[in-house]
Amino acid sequence: MGKENNQIVYAQSAATTQTNFPWIDTRDPTSYDTNYAIGKFWVNTLNDTLWYLNSLSSTNALLQAQWITLISNLSTLSDTLNDIVDPSSGVSTPPNNIQLYGTPGQIDIVADPGNNRLVFTLSGGGTAIDQVQVQENTLPGVNPVDADTNGLMTVSGALVASHGVPLETRSRALNSYNIEIQISDISAAPNSTLNGVSHFDSAAFTVDADGFVSLTGSGAATTDVMVDVFTGPGTNPVVPSGTGVITITGDQVASATVGANVIQTNSLAANTFAIEIQRTGSSAISDSTLNGVSHFDSANFTVNADGFVSLAGGGLAIDSVALQAGTSPITPNGAGQITLNGAVVAAGTNPIRSDGTGANTAAIEVQISQAIAAADPTKIGLANFNSANFTVNADGFVSLSVGGSISNAALSVAMTANISKTITSISLTPGTWDISANFVSESDGTTGYITGSISTVNNTHQGAFGNGLMQMNGAAVFGHMCVTVAQFRKVIASTQTQYAVIQANGGTLKGSAGLFATRVG
Fold first, then answer.
1. Would you put residue 313 in left (φ > 0), alpha (ψ -120 to 50) or beta?
2. DSSP 271-319
3. CB under 8 Å to 465, separation ≥6 — which residues?
């Protein structure tokens, strides 16, 4: 309840009126306190404030009062730590004043006298940030992000796995958020959502101080490969697959497939090419288009660990052949061939010989056997045998056949009285033989006779010639007589020689003998 302290006074010019003493109350006036004269003072004894009525106005037929405070009990200011700041002295500039000071570059405090105010603004004229809106949050992070009780908001940088957002703000904890950049990823086609940070293999790239990336060696990157030839679905050039791969294989192909280059690149499928080398070929003359890879017959060649090829045995290859007769040496023809023929030639003095019959041909010649009076190794040769008298087994062993016969005769020899001589012999193989002999004597002018016998090698008597007496009528008269020994049969178990032996009995004579054997079993 307020207290009015006015007194009524009288003045000639104003008649009776009240004096303008302050209204004393325990509250501040409001706009509804209108029953006062303009200029009326109002004292609030509860908070020691002084007001005066500045004006009265009507709004929508409602009278309103404008009270303005003049003096309060504010005499100092303090900060949040209750450190007190007193006003300046009455002689200071400005006097009796507490100046509000903003940190330069952060808060500006500007006087607005016309509006009776001081204006606090941020340097630059913007609005203070009390929250930060981020793109995403992961609990316990929030969106928007508030500062903590100290007004602090933590902002961090973070590297994250590729997830389709190259750069984003994300709160993962209270009062903080991250500026997150993802690691770069790969794709088959352009895709900006996979952009990110990366680092580079020093074996393939260089990065200068400005972050400029180049290939090692400063060359251009290979994006495709040109090949010699291609066959669909192969392509030229060959490009990488969706995973950036070009497959290169090795292959060998048939001789004369590649040609002059011998080795070529050939694309037979997409994203793939083969390095093909042809197999070697043959020709009658030098031809580099037939060069290629090969392997070697182990019966004829050796190849060491370095790939060095030698003839088996380590000798030299034969490039010509020296012969006994004819053209010598002979050399291979254009196909690398020497022709060797076999030939049978007439009896001579070379049982077997090589004979050059042309520039690239030779004959291995074997002579035909021949009949001679005595052994001579130069006269041996090929023969064939009368099947009526001989057999030849699979090993080429020759035997007399059953019914076959063999004979031998001696030239005439001079025989003096009582002289015994072996005239002829034959060698018989195992079997059963019928053996016989005959004797021929010739008179040389004296009277006498000759006897004979057949003996084995050990002179075992087998049979005898019948005694033959030849009496001539004079020395100048010659006569002949033949006595045949009776035939006998003998079984021979092993090869054995039979001999015809004759003896002169009286006189001086000439004699000869024939020995015969026929195989009967």
1. left
2. TEEEEEEEBP---SS--GGG--B----TTTEEE-TT--EEETTS-PPP-
3. 437, 438, 439, 450, 451, 452, 453, 483, 485, 502, 513
pLDDT at 1: 57
Q: Are 33 and 67 in contact (CB under 8 A)?
A: yes
- Cβ atoms within 10 Å of 260's Cβ, excluding its own: 9
* Per-residue model confidence (pLDDT) at position 462: 45
Contact call for residues 479 and 361 (beta carbons, < 8 A):
no
Helix (H), strand (E), coil (C) string for 88-106: CCCCCCCCCCCCCCCCCCC
| Per-residue confidence (pLDDT) for residue 492, from 0 to 100 | 77
* Domain boundaries along the sequence of the chain: 3-71, 77-122, 229-290, 316-383, 398-519
pLDDT at 131: 92
State the architecture of 398-519 in CATH terms. Answer: Sandwich (2.60)
- Amino acid letter at 2? G
DSSP string, 378-406: GG--B----TTTEEE-TT--EEEPTT-EE
- The number of helix segments (H) and strand segments (E) in the chain equals 0, 42
What's residue 473's pLDDT? 30
The pLDDT value recorded for residue 465 is 43
Phi and psi angles of residue 113, each rounded to the nearest 5 degrees, phi first = -60, -35
The residues of the chain scoring below 70 in pLDDT are 1-19, 71-74, 90, 218, 347, 411, 439-488, 503-509
Q: What is the pLDDT of residue 454?
A: 64
E-assigned strand segments in 102-211? 107-112, 117-122, 131-132, 136-137, 145-146, 154-160, 167-173, 176-182, 205-207
Q: What burial letters (b/e) apply to 284-308, b meaning 16+ CB within 10 Å?
A: eeeeeebbbeeeeeeeeeeeeeeee
User: What count of other Cβ atoms lies within 10 Å of the Cβ of residue 1?
Assistant: 5
Query: Which run of H or of E encompasses 413?
Result: strand 413-415
> Alpha carbon of 399 to those of 179, 388, 428, 429, 521: distances in Å?
116, 11, 10, 8, 12
Question: pTM for this structure?
Answer: 0.34
Number of other CB atoms surrounding residue 470 within 10 Å? 18
What is the distance between the alpha carbons of residues 284 and 336, in angstroms, rounded to a whole number?
8
Cα–Cα distance measured from residue 88 to residue 99, given in angstroms and rounded to the nearest whole number: 9
Strand-pair partners of 366: 344, 352
